[in-house]
Amino acid sequence: MRDTAAVVADIRALSRDGENEPCEPLDVNEVVQAAVKLALPQVYDTARLELELGEPNPVPVIGSRLGQVVLNLIINATQAMPDRPADRNRVVVSTRAGDAAGAVIEVEDNGVGIPPEIADRLFDPFFTTKPVGQGTGLGLALSHSIVTSFGGELTFQPADPEGTIFRVELPTAGARG
Questions:
Q1: Parallel, antiparallel, or unpaired for β 103-109 and 90-97?
Q2: In which domain, by residue range, is 84 found?
Q3: 159: how many CB neighbours lie within 10 A of its CB?
């Protein structure tokens, strides 16, 4: 069990609004690890959370904002799980270097997947598949906005054989537009 000071430190790191923070090259793995620690209590009863850290390149981002994206993707993946025992549900968060340098973060789940008829609306503000009162429809729209503000891309694709992979691709400082 983590001590309270460690939890508070992770919450503080991810709760800054980032408005006045500079984009500076950061270790993506550190940001991902902090987001995973915060997500664990919400994931614990629903799914196994696996972390596969590769060797991504440092990328110019605001750590608190990128952490919000990763946390949101993990929570969304957890909420996409069918009603089955937690040991059969899986969320994998992985990092690696990008094809053209940079960094890639993937959040893969073996949940219900994304029906093709809603795929085009997934990043639209206020679009949600959750019942009234249970979702605002802002999480993915905000995440998409944050990632593109870093010159990156947030995409998704079906996972094999079931579920979804959300991919955050971030450029290095020189590759940023």
A1: antiparallel
A2: 4-175
A3: 18
Question: Smallest Cα–Cα separation from 174: which of 54, 26, 22, 60?
Answer: 60
Strands 24-26 vs 59-61: parallel, antiparallel or unpaired = antiparallel
Residue ranges of alpha helices (H) inside 17-124 are 28-43, 63-79
Q: Taking the CA atoms of 70, 81, 165 and 90 in sequence, report the sign of the dihedral they define.
A: positive
Alpha carbon distance 161, 21 (integer Å):
40
Give the total number of structural domains in the chain. Answer: 1
pTM of the full structure: 0.84
Phi/psi of residue 154, nearest 5 degrees: -115, 120
Q: How far apart are CA 23 and CA 11, in angstroms?
A: 20
CATH of the domain at 84: 3.30.565.10
Per DSSP, 69 falls in state H
Element (H, E) at 139: helix 139-149
How far is it, in rounded angstroms, from Cα 43 to Cα 132? 22
pLDDT tens digits, residue range 8-64?
A: 444 444 444 445 567 889 999 999 999 999 999 989 899 999 999 999 999 999 999
End-to-end Cα separation, the chain, in angstroms: 43
